[in-house]
Prior knowledge:
Elements: E1 3-7, E2 10-12, E3 18-25, E4 31-39, E5 46-52, E6 57-59, E7 67-72, E8 77-82, E9 91-99, E10 105-107, E11 111-115
Parallel strand pairs: 2-11
Antiparallel strand pairs: 1-3, 3-8, 4-5, 4-9, 5-6, 7-8, 9-10, 9-11
Amino acid sequence: xxxxxxxxxxxxxxxxxxxxxxxxxxxxxxxxxxxxxxxxxxxxxxxxxxxxxxxxxxxxxxxxxxxxxxxxxxxxxxxxxxxxxxxxxxxxxxxxxxxxxxxxxxxxxxxxxxxxx
Length: 117
């Protein structure tokens, strides 16, 4: 059984920083990508950042230059360092792990990030 557990969410003031972490357990398959998505109220879930097994990173335009995604392949963990947070970054952030086999896609339960003064 694959399980992804996120941590690190919470309340932060505009301009502040948070670091999200995700630990995947029960992974017995080659991982294609590990990453983070977010969903704000009334909006669709969107890609925030991801990193491939080869180490290539991708970011949404909204977070480029502010967020950094990293992984530890040996531990099956992925982190998201979020700096210069803005009000519009408020959302539930979800960890995602994607395998190379079709349909092998797993999600965490999500962690709330609230940017507010």
